[in-house]
Amino acid sequence: MISQKVAQQSLRRLAVQQPYAMRWSMMNAASPAAIAIGRNVQTRQAATSANTEDPTKILARQRLNRPVSPHLTIYQPQITWFGSGFNRITGVALSGTLYLYATAYLASPLLGWHLESASMVAAFAALPVAAKILLKGTLAFPFTYHCMNGLRHLGWDLCLGITNQQVIKTGWAVVGLSTISAIALALL
Amino acid sequence: MASFMRQSSLLRQTCLSAFRQPLVTKNVTGVSQVVAFHASAKKQILPPPQQVIQGTMNDPAPIPESHPSEGSYHWTFERIVSVGLIPLTIAPFAAGSLNPVMDAVLCSLLVVHSHVGFQASIIDYFPERRVPKTRTSMNWLLRAMTLTTAVGLYEFETNDVGLTEAIRRVWKA
After folding, report:
1. What are the angstrom distances between the C-alpha of A20 and each of A23, A24, A29, A37?
2. Does domain A78-186 have CATH number 2.60.40.1120?
3. In chain A, which end has fewer C-beta atoms inside a 10 angstrom radius, N or C?
4. Nearest chain A Cα distance for residue B41, angstroms
5. For the segment B98-116, what is each residue's pLDDT rounded down to a tens digit?
C-alpha cells in the first residue's frame, strides 16, 4: 500500500512538472515534434510464444472437453415428458404398421403373399380367443392413446391447458381413458 | 505503471481467495467436497463427435433460407391435417365403416400425417451434424416408403374393401 502511494505521488509530480515526459512515457507514442527532430524510438513487442498451431484446431479441441448434456435417464420419470415420449412411440408404431402393411400389400402379388382382407379375416378368425384379445389390445391401445393425446397437443397449440398442473391432470386422464377404451375395443 | 497495476490486482485476488479458502470443506483424503457432483464415473451416452470449425471462429450462425413449405406454414399444415383426422377417426366408430370416398380421404390424410411424423422423428434422432449420411438415407427411405404406402393404399382401396371396412371385418372375425 505504501509503495502504491509513493508511485502515485511521483507520477502526479511528474505529470505536473514535466507533462510532455509524462505523456510520452504513458502513451508510448511519439509527438509530431519528436518525429521531426528524430527523437522518437519505435518499440515493438516481440511475440512471446512460439505457438504456430492453427487456432481453429485449439478451439475444436477445447470443445471436446466441454461437458455433454445429460441424457433422458437422469430425469425423474414424470407424466409430462413420459406422456409426450409415449405419444411419439405410439405414433411411430401405428404409422409403421400402416406403412409396412400397405407396402407389403403392394408387393404381395410379386411375393405370392395373401394380404387381402378376406384372407386376413380368415387368418384372424382361426386364432384362439386369448390371442385375438391380445392382438386387438396391442393395436387398440396405441391407437386410443395417440388419438386422445393428439387432442391434448392440439389444445396446447391453442394455449389451452398449458399449466403444469393441467398437463399432469390431462396426462393421467388420457392414460386412464385410453387404457379403458383399449380394453373395451379389445373385448369388442 | 502498467506492471504496477497488474500487481495490485493480483494482490486483491489473493486477498479474496484467502477469505474464500475456509469455505471449501475437505474430507479426510483431502478431496474437495465441491467436486462431489462429478464423483461418479464418466459414462457418456452420446460422446461429442469429431469437432470441426467451418469458416473462421467468429462467423455468425447461418440463417436458413425461408421456404413456403418449411417453418410456420409447414406447422399450420400439420395442424390442419391433424384436425382433419379427428372427424374421420370418430366417424367409423359411429357408422361402422366409411364410404369409399371418405375412406380414401382418411387414407390420404393418414399418409400425410405419418410422413410428417416420421420426418420430424428423423430430424430429431438423426442430426445432420452427427450422422449426415444416415440422415440423407433415412430421408430417402421415408420418401420411398411413403410412395409405396400411398400406392399400396390406393390398390387396397380400389381392389379391396377399404381400410375402415377391412379393420371392422378383422375386428369382428
Report:
1. 5, 6, 11, 15
2. no
3. N
4. 13
5. 889 999 999 999 999 999 9
